[in-house]
Design brief:
The protein is built from four helices and nine strands; from the N terminus they run ββββββαααβαββ. By secondary structure, the chain is an alpha/beta fold. It has a single domain, classed as Vaccinia Virus protein VP39 (Rossmann fold), CATH 3.40.50.
Length: 175
């Protein structure tokens, strides 16, 4: 009798976070129902300030390193996908790439339209039929209306939040 391959028992979680960063939005940052993906793995310290009174060490520690524009998963794998991409460009972050905002959230390049369109495409590719995509966008620099033009998918509903109502949560249901 041959031994079973332990990977045969591995069941892919139902949820995918395609650019998890430091997992700030998660109630349980190690939720076993989710696979956490980011294109970077790093730890960094931030000085005491308004957001972190005593300073902090923040960790970007994905389960799997991958770019959200080329996800390493089969078609129609997940019931639920979370897409919270970077939302600032060099215009807001500067050219050095060393600021806390960029470390926490990442940066959009000059090709941001193509990058985000590819990201939407990949999210819907790995999403099962009737699955949900939750898209989070902060419109401090680029309006949500410009971002929604980057996918042919129709949003189901959305909600604005934050002090200035610039953070948008948008739900999609895959046909």
């Amino acid at each position: 009798m041959s031994e079973a391959n332990p990977l045969d028992r591995f069941v892919m979680p139902d949820v995918l976070d395609v650019c998890c960063g430091t997992r700030m939005m998660w109630m349980d940052k190690n939720d076993e129902r989710a696979v956490f993906v980011d294109k970077r793995t790093e730890s960094f310290s931030i000085a005491p300030g308004r957001a972190h009174k005593n300073g902090a060490v923040l960790n970007v520690a994905p389960d799997q390193e991958a770019d959200f524009t080329a996800l390493p998963f089969d078609n129609e794998t997940f019931h639920h996908v979370v897409f919270d991409p970077p939302h600032h460009t060099s215009k807001r972050l500067g050219k050095t790439g060393t600021g806390v905002m960029e470390k926490k959230y990442g940066r959009l390049g000059d090709d941001w339209r193509e990058m985000l369109a590819d990201g939407f495409s990949e999210c819907f590719r790995v999403l099962k039929p009737k699955g949900t995509l939750i898209f989070k966008w902060c419109a401090t620099e680029i309006p949500l209306s410009e971002i929604l033009k980057l996918t042919p998918e129709k949003p189901l509903y959305g909600h604005k939040s934050g002090k200035k109502a610039q953070t948008h949560w948008v739900a999609f249901l895959k046909a």
